[in-house]
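Predict the holo structure. Ligand: zinc ion.
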Amino acid sequence: MQMTETQFSAIKQQLKKLVAVPDGFYAKKYAGIDIDAIQDKSDFEKLPFTEKADLREAYPLGLAAVPAEKIVRIHSSSGTTGTPVIVPYTKKDVEDWAIQFARCYEYAGVTPADRVQITPGYGLWTAGIGFQAGCERLGAMAIPMGPGNTEKQLQFMMDMETTVFTATASYALLIAEEVERRGIGDKIKLKKLITGSERAGEKIRERIISSLGVEYYDIYGLTEVYGPGIGINCQHGHGMHVWSDYVYLEIVNPETGELVEDGEWGEIVLTTLQKEGAPLIRFRTHDLSRIIPGECACGHNEHPRLDTLTGRSDDMMKIHGVNVFPAHIEEILQEFPELSSEYQIRISHLDGRDTMRVYIEAPGTLDWAQTATAVAMRAKSKIGFTPLVKIVELGFLPRSEKKTKRVFDERE
Ligand code: ZN
């Protein structure tokens, strides 16, 4: 990954400022590191990573790199493991986030003539308000629904003639299935779907695209680094351009922390270039992706492209000594067009050995036993062991208005 001179000097400036904050997060973390000795990219790459656990320890406002009176807002990432991370924003941070989000909409071809229905949640987490601020900055019409209440969502979608729908992939799928079930496809005017905060396999995407007749855009971002909106795919493919004037991108081997070559898969590590409230240096996101090498047809090669996320390093299931990701199962389902896109994985420890059960949905017209065998055989050749494949009726597995939980590890 290249580092431009502008990026390097932004990082250097930021580092100097950060280690000078009295009792500040990086003043403590990087105590003993001579910032002046950082002369180039390779020196920067020796700096220790910032881990989510470090951020948690800074609760409540230990991440703040400015005096309290400069903080205009906080957001928080919901920790699945207890203490949340609190991210303070200055006025400039809030504006910069809206600028980046407006750019996302532009890349997706959204214009002031569009009507944007916003279903991600508002409040402590960064989703809804980011979608809204970017929309207003661009000048499109925001329809701030928030999550849930599918009945009202569909009514507004028709009555307000929504053209852009924003949601988690799970909720977009739920809406797509609902539109199909009610046969109201001809009453909606959707052109684009923008999803964020959750990866979706190819099969789920295709299902949504065909039911809603939309262009599919994937937005990238996380609460620790502004929120959703630091990157999006353009109209020339699925690679998500990440805004290089705001964020410096690295990909590392999740096990060793070593940088990998462009094009190789690994964990996304982010450094903010302009943030004031809570700048982050080499923050390990646990999101897995790769940098797509080469040029994009849109010409915006100043903003490098991330491939569709394959998942999170914490989603990895270790079973029979094999590393399995939900994406592997999705790729297998992709080969069986007659099956639905939903699945559920349950791992348990029975009679002294680990067992993986995969639940998939199939129509009643199919020979279930035969299908289960075919899927299990495909899995064996792909992941190296045979899971127990169980078929259930279409619509049996839970759908969600937020993120659908598809992996349950029931081992001790
Ligand atoms: Zn592009």
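The CA atoms of residues 87 and 224 lie 6 Å apart. The mean pLDDT is 93.
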